[in-house]
Amino acid sequence: DSELLDKLLLNTYPKQQTYDYIMDHEIPNKTIPNKKGSRYFAYGDSGKDSYLTIGIGHLVDSRKAGSVERTARMLRRINPTLDVNKIVAGQQGLTHSEAIQLYRMDVDEKTRVAHKHFPKLHTYPDYMQVAIIDGYFWGMLPKSRKTRIYIKAGKLEKAREEWLDNTTYRRGESKHRFGNFNKALDRWIEEED
Cβ(99)–Cβ(11) under 8 Å? Predict the structure, then answer.
């Protein structure tokens, strides 16, 4: 099929395939915290700083530069009646549909960022593509420059060592998220051997 070949050559098919996988397999497994009635309200995340978050891990905390303004722009696209200030104050929540739309927008953005930083991402195993996008979604991979360099250079064992040599991981925070990424790296290393 020439259309499929064109998509593969342009690298649009793998990006969409990975995005579709995340939407099909990740969303059903996500629990949206802080539900009151039929709405989801802002909550403090599980990190030591308890950043204000809404929906599935969407940062909306004034302590993080630009997050409130970014959220306001995104919410206007979802539902113009949503007021980010009321959301931050805990006076307004999101419907399930709005929370999922916000998550989709976040994943789409992080997928684009991951492809920008990893131009050959589409050549990586699917599970590693998902792990990398997830690492961007939760904000861990952007903080680990050396891990990114080692992955791009194909030095997967060094990438794993660097990934786990992380203050957040050593403090015991988000171990399951770090562990998921590490499992994907382990699998890739094993398959390469």
Answer: no
34-38: list long-range contacts, CB under 8 Å, 24+ apart.
34/93, 36/93, 38/95, 38/96
The two beta strands, 43-44 and 52-54, are antiparallel
Our measurement of the distance from residue 49's CA atom to the centroid of its chain's CA atoms, rounded to an integer in Å, reads: 19
User: Pick from 149, 141, 187, 188: which is nearest to 166 by CA?
Assistant: 141
* The amino acid at 161: E
The 10s digit of each residue's pLDDT in 32-51 is: 888 898 899 999 987 788 99
pTM score, two decimals? 0.79
| Residues 166/178, Cβ–Cβ less than 8 Å | yes
User: Cα dist. 141→36, 69, 125, 138, 144 in Å?
Assistant: 32, 23, 17, 8, 5
Q: What are phi and psi of 53, to 5 degrees?
A: -140, 155
